Amino acid sequence: MKQRSFRKNLALVALAAVAMGVLIFVLLLFSARTFDIYMRESPDGYTDVTAQIKDPAIVEMVSAEKKGDNWVVTFRALQPGETEVDIAFSHRGEAYGELKDCYHTSMYVTKVGTILEPGNKDFNGFYILCGGLSAYFLLSGIYLFLQYRRRRKTDFFTYDTVLNLGLSMFLFVHGALFLGLLLFCVVYPDEAVGRLLFLALEYAMTVIVLALLPAVLMLAGALAVSNVWLIRHEGARKTNLLALLLACLLVGGVGVCVIMGVVNTQLFAFDPASVAVSCVRTGISVLFVYFAAMLVATQYCCVIAARRKPALPQDYVLILGCAIKKDGTLYPLLKGRADRAIAFYRQQKEAGEQAPVLVPSGGQGGDEVIAEGEAVRRYLLSKGIPETDILPETASKNTLENMRCSKALIEAEKRDAKVIFSTTNYHVFRSGILAHDAGLKADGIASKTRWYFWPNAQIREFVGLLVRGWKLHAVLLVLMLAFSLVFSNLGLILDRLISM
Fold first, then answer.
1. 148 and 259 within one domain
2. CATH of the domain at 111
3. What CA–CA distance (Å, rounded) separates 138 from 2?
4. CA distance 162 to 191
5. How far apart are CA 145 and CA 173, in angstroms?
6. Alpha helices, DSSP H only, in 3-158?
7. How far is the C-alpha of 401 from the C-alpha of 320, rounded, in Å?
8. One domain for residues 110 and 136
9. E-strand stretches of 261-344
10. Phi and psi at residue 264, to the nearest 5°
11. Checking DSSP bridges between strand 316-319 and strand 357-360, what pairing results, if any?
């Protein structure tokens, strides 16, 4: 399978949506030219079925046959218009002689020749609608997941990896939803009336959110606990409150969905209050599920990145800088990165390979007495690393500049060098993306951090990556919201079209 950028993948998924939409529409036009009435058979058994049609020029009964426990009476459209229909199912009771069970409804034939039952907002072809949509979402999800797997093997450190995985998860959720509705239509055809299915579509995303409630509460609790410990040890700085903020957003988002789910509005009513409640409930639910999928995808990629083990040998090990103490020594975070690089350095030597060159990277901040790269160089020397195996970089101000400046130093010594970088576990994936941006092909190795620091740092990485791809996320959200709002109000829209 050819590897494509996420934008190309998104374009293919969008084209597939258009093609599937046209196919579903055409199939529905043919399927809805007839209409089936289901009637569960009496214990005595029906002996005859007759239909009284008020305006026989509108529809006609073409068949009545027993299928399982039901009788299915099929009508065919003749010309546009609306008519009332009474169906009589005759049977003989033991004590009362000849009896009739009656079914009364009205049928509306559209200008294109399809039959609708306005009372139940029903038409033939729900299995086509649900089946087509479930196939589209599941196949699109599989395609994007395969693209994620391929990119993970060949070009892991790009944000396309997250987008492919996150969107595939979001599509799988929708695919499972419509597959469930399809199975309901197949197993219970007599119960699968339009009003019930439209109601299921309106509340489907909210139900998914509520199903996630136990996991959300557990995650929010874990985030809050880790954040309290972080504040106790590191202080209540703004950047140390991200996990607590996310915990509040998770609980608050579910709470809003619960409130909107129990708000009493008139179903299928075209009044502003009912439409507004339906749209807000669906919109919040879609946003919640979408960002939950992207959060899970990002965290999964971060965990996978932190567990990668680059092959030996490597020519250079880049040590990414961060803040140092006022006396020029290393904080535990930076010390961990340096120690991880030293461990790899010694592992490669013990394997009989030539020792890699360590590249401590980082310039001097406004409140720092020396450059971070120089501080790490001194630490490496104190650990017995020879001066000849150290190539300090002391001009960069952030991670992207770490990559660019170190790349320039490395290429000045050796072209096509094998390079890896050492950083903290939560930072490996985003650092790899920045290395990719800088044109540096490099894998990463991870140092560990304290358990209470990791969740907050992971959330910071998620926000950073989210901001990085905000334009794509905006486009995706507009498309997802538009689709979900249409389908959550499909019964209302159909009712409005009938009354026009």
1. yes
2. 2.60.40
3. 20
4. 40
5. 13
6. 6-31, 126-154
7. 10
8. no
9. 316-319
10. -85, 105
11. parallel
Give 336-400 as a DSSP string: HHHHHHHHHHHHHHHTTSPPPEEEEB----TT-SS-HHHHHHHHHHHTT--GGGB--B----SHH
Residue 317, C-beta contacts closer than 8 angstroms, at least 6 positions apart: 341, 344, 345, 356, 357, 358, 359, 419, 420, 421, 422, 445
Percentage of the chain beyond pLDDT 90 is 45
The mean pLDDT value of the chain amounts to: 86
CA 97 to chain centre: 60
What is the CB-side half-sphere exposure of residue 193 using CA atoms within 13 A? 13
Q: Quick one: pLDDT at residue 94?
A: 62
Place of tokens 């597959």: 179
Contacts for 153 with CB less than 8 Å, ≥ 6 apart: none
Q: Are residues 153 and 299 in the same domain?
A: yes
User: How far apart are the C-alpha atoms of 347 and 335, rounded to whole Å?
Assistant: 18
Q: Give the model's confidence band at 274: pLDDT under 50 very low, under 70 low, under 90 confident, else very high.
A: low
Closest CA to 152 of 330, 302, 15: 302
Q: Same domain, yes or no, for 395 and 331?
A: yes
Q: Provide the 8-state DSSP code for 241.
A: G
Averaged pLDDT, 444-453: 85
Q: What is the CATH number of the domain that holds 387?
A: 3.40.50.620
Sheet holding 34-40, edge to edge: 34-40, 70-77, 59-67
* Owner of token pair 């002996």: 47
Residue 406: CA atoms inside 13 Å, Cβ hemisphere, count? 36
Phi and psi angles of residue 78, each rounded to the nearest 5 degrees, phi first? -115, -50
Does 218 share its domain with 169?
yes
Length of the chain: 500
The Cα 498–Cα 492 span in angstroms is: 10
Give the number of C-alpha atoms closer than 13 A to the C-alpha of residue 434, restricted to the C-beta side.
23
Report the alpha-carbon distance of residue 423 to residue 447 in Å, rounded: 6
Residues spanned by the domain of 379: 316-417
Question: Long-range contacts made by residues 433-437, C-beta under 8 angstroms, separation at least 24?
Answer: 433/157, 433/158, 433/159, 433/465, 433/468, 434/399, 434/400, 434/402, 434/403, 435/157, 435/403, 436/155, 436/157, 436/158, 437/400, 437/403
**Are 405 and 468 members of one domain?**
no
Q: How confident is the model at residue 339 (pLDDT cuts 50, 70, 90)?
A: very high
Residues 108 and 130 in one domain: no
Which range, 215-219, 317-321, 327-331, has the best average confidence (pLDDT)? 317-321
Q: List pLDDT tens digits, range 289-310.
A: 898 899 899 989 999 999 989 9
Kindly report the pTM of this predicted structure: 0.85
Contact 209, 257 (CB under 8 A): yes
pLDDT band of residue 154 (cuts 50, 70, 90) is confident
* pLDDT score at 149: 93
Strand partners, 318: 359, 421
Which has the closest alpha carbon to 324: 287, 369, 354? 369
Q: Number of folded domains in the chain?
A: 3
